[in-house]
Specification:
By secondary structure, this protein is mostly helical. The protein has one helix and no strands.
Length: 61
């Protein structure tokens, strides 16, 4: 009795991230994102580069 009700207070910050450097935070988020997320955005970026290449080729030829 007399202690705050911690289970009703939403946590806005991950306790693991509190004392990490910027590089460590980036590594933490990269691992959280996972390989599927990385591959999705990699493929999306490559597709946009291909679209830009063919659009430029169509315009300037």
């Amino acid at each position: 009795m007399g202690q705050p009700n911690d289970h009703t207070t939403p946590q806005t910050e991950n306790p693991v991230e509190k004392n990490l450097s910027r590089k460590e935070k980036m590594i933490f988020w990269f691992k959280r994102l996972g390989w599927l997320g990385f591959l999705f955005f990699l493929a999306k970026g490559i597709i946009w580069l291909v679209v830009a290449y063919f659009a430029g080729d169509a315009i300037f030829s």
